[in-house]
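Morning!

As promised:
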Amino acid sequence: MRRVWGILLGVLLLAGVGAAVVVGRDTDDEGGGGPATVSGVIGSEKAEFFADPEVVAALADEGLTVRAQPVGSWAMDDVDLAGHDFAFPSSQGPADALRADHGDVGAPLRPFYSPLVVLAHRQAAEVLAANGLASLEGANVGRLAMAEYLAAVEEGRTWQELDGALAQDGLSGALYVSSTDPLTSNSGALYLAAASFVANDGQVVADDAAIERTAPLLRTLVRVQGTQQSSSDGPFRDFVSGIGNPLVLAYESQVASLLIGGAGAGDMVVLYPDTTATSDHTLVPLTEGGRRLGEVLTNDPELRRLAVRHGFRPQGATAEFTEATAAHSGYLRDGLDGVRQAPVPTADVLRAMAERARG
Amino acid sequence: MRARTRIAALLGALALAATACTGGSDGDGDGGDGGVAAAETVRILAGSELADMEFLLERAADETGVRAEITRVGTLDATRMVVSGQADGAYDGVWLATNDYLRLHPEAAQRILTETSVMTSPVALGLRPEALDRLGWRPDDLTWSQVHEAAAAGDLTFGMTDPTRSNSGYSALISVTSALSGAQSALTADDVAGSAARLRELFAGQRLTSGSSGWLAEAFQQRDDVDALINYESVLLSLDRAGTADLEVARPLDGVVTARYPLTTLSSASPEAVEALRLLGAYLRGADAQHALTQETLRRPVSGEVAPADAIPQGQRRELPYPGSLDVADGLLDAYDGELRRPSRTLYVLDTSGSMAGDRLAALQDALRRLTGADNPAGQRFRDREEVTLIPFNDAVVSTDTWTVEAEGREDALAGIRSGVDGLVAEGETAVYASLIEAYELLAAEGAQDAFTSIVLMTDGENRDDVLAADFQTFHAALADEQRHVPVFTILFGDSDRAELQGIADLTGGELFDAVNGSLDDAFQEIRGYQ
């Protein structure tokens, strides 16, 4: 056994050196021959994607072995990226900031995206609908009226003030959506982006005056929650586990992945906010290897298929996502018509907003 | 130039792949293809209640090749170790009931690399069926407000861990403070102050306190005069299933605080350890492990594929937020320790025989002096309203001096205790049982007190007196209920006799603390959780 490996290794080594030499001569063209290990940091919501054996195999077919370390997207700035080939935050803001810090190996690539949604159990969704804060489009899917919801939180409305809320369903106390720490986690930051866009009369927050104007609302959205979790996996797992706050902010991809994986979502209702922010998974290449990873994720049909299986919407055509989620249309919307996409402020503005909100 | 760098990089990558392959050829390497090989052992600082996950960690070692080396510690102690950086290098990960308290420290963000939720369990109330009948309650629609009313009226007694030591106690404290203050969102300092009177009434019903949930369950089993136990739902359901205690489990409608058990990787961990913890986390999140953990430990799974064990009650409960700032969180602990809980009545029966002379006496004096620091955090000093008696003994009791610590004049009382400690002198023989009997007689003479009363016995040798263990047993059996329930926490030190001290702890419902293999300082600190 050991000998077989020895021979194989010898061959690999020879082939590798050969390829390397060829690459070296071929000015700037892509090698693609030898297997290469690329390492990088990723937003935690992509950890399961990169750990999936089929993804590992598909990447290996493209000559890539990927070592991915989950780190909060907005905390990547603080991580020492020396020796890494790429950073793959879940939003364009941190990607732009990273790109500014680390020079230009190639344009950032956006292989897939996922909109933010709010998860509710059936009773909670029905109470919201009965009180004009949401509308249901089916048993397990609906729309959250953002302006009305934000006004309710700002006024300090409680569940027990809403018609039909029962403490037996966990519906008492302040009405709010649980999100993650906006200073370290992407979904928490995007929540503030969407809320501030609504509060700023449909304008993206871009200056001190707008930060000032939206600060009280954002402060309330965060303060009611107490300690926030640091990654979107936490609140989502709480929801699946049947504990935690009745309303939880999540990526659509987390729900889609659960459903496509065959696990039931029970009485979960997926509420698409009528104004939402979208997670643009943006790969910042730091080396040639990182750039190549971004390209195969964007273009390789097998990797696109696998991205859909993990709940992401691939960039470009929607057919792949529609097809894969056809059986789950009771929970998921096909297209995102009528869902207004709030543009995300720059990383600096968002950080300033998050700091004010955390107070 | 550029080409050469690239060749070097590619060769580097190949070398890495080669190491991975060699590792794989030796057998079980399940580390995936290439990348960093996972460490075979990861060192994890874990909450003591995770002892029941040992079986699954062994299975994980078989399946993943990653063995978890567990060091058990309380949540707040672990938090201090992580925040101070003391855990860096010594441990690769932490696994606690919650990271919420840890996350309140600004330093924590840099110390933590990543975390994976593994399972959940809310802190709930377990009631003996007789108590439930007597009070006319149903587990499905019970509230903390009802619990408060019953405790205030003297109709309900309960046990709970010390919030300054243990997460289940702290979670319970957040729950009752939220419920009794009427707070609709995360607690503020005003909520804590505004509900103090009601919280004091509630805690008047507390009969058992402890630094760990394991001891609390044992003590509860022996005390059928205690009606209820506050602990993790999983612990309460397990006690009921094992027949250890007959319990109905209620998650109060006005809200619970739930433990999430995130497996957490420290930033200081090596790449190999990071990879090993990732494999371990992925295994624990898999369907097999999720099924096993809900069936065996009665915690709730976090995987959509696995249903919770049948014994776990259904229905949502309001989740009460963890305080959003360290000021509020620590303020709540200070309030509990200093003014909300029942006061402590503490007797220290201390061996000052000749064999204690020198380093031993100095170590004892240091350990006691440390508890007199006026600025120590909650739970690490003699608390306000505590009555402390020092009873040094050799051939007989040498002296009996008592101080009462009050918020006003606190420094004077603590200075008094310090002077008592400074005055200890080592000489003479060791009369363990006769001295212990005197401590109980002192309590009997004081009569009934509304306090957590306990005795600490520290000795460095065997009993050398003609009052023997059998005499103490006879004496103890004849005590009135009030005194017979007073536990003796014994400290094994120097050349003391383990069997003798274990016997005293068992007979009185106390616990033995080992300062031979641990430090005297740690033993005295740990015992604070039981006083």
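The radius of gyration of chain A is 22 Å.

Hope this helps with the figure draft.
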